[in-house]
Write a structure and sequence with these properties.
By secondary structure, the protein is α+β, with helices and mostly antiparallel strands. It has four helices and six strands. The chain has one domain: Aspartate Aminotransferase, domain 1. α1 (12-21) crosses α3 (104-118).
């Protein structure tokens, strides 16, 4: 049985995340467990997540899940807008809620960090060659 779709393709927040994520070398999008997932060989970001509280999953529909280094993860989790996502949290992923006052430069930096951890050295070299 396929997972239900848990996003609205017309969501403007998803549109911003999508534009940022797909700007990385060889980045593509697929649906994974009902959520948009951005990947090269491995997934580097998901849009939307959830937290299990008292046996019930609470959705974070407007959030991005990224895989950052442990020190950065600890700093992010000290912030109220961040959470340990169900299922992926045990593997080091962190969720960041996106609101009206989201710092989109920071989101790009988080996506960049996650991409660098998953994309492989050739793609990271291509990314670095684009930078002035």
């Amino acid at each position: 049985m396929p997972h239900p779709i848990r996003f609205d393709d017309a969501d403007p927040v998803l549109g911003r995340v999508r534009a940022l994520a797909l700007a990385f070398p060889d980045a593509a999008e697929k649906i994974s467990h009902g959520h948009p997932a951005f990947y090269t060989t491995k997934v580097f970001a998901y849009y939307g997540g959830s937290v299990k509280v008292d046996g019930v999953y609470r959705q974070h529909e407007h959030s991005v899940l990224v895989l950052v280094d442990p020190d950065e993860r600890a700093a992010l989790l000290a912030e109220q807008r961040c959470y340990v996502p169900a299922y992926l949290g045990a593997s080091g992923w962190v969720g960041v809620d996106l609101t009206g006052d989201t710092d989109w430069d920071e989101v790009r930096e988080l996506l960049d960090a996650s991409y660098r951890r998953t994309a492989g050295p050739r793609r990271v070299a291509r990314l670095d060659s684009r930078r002035p």
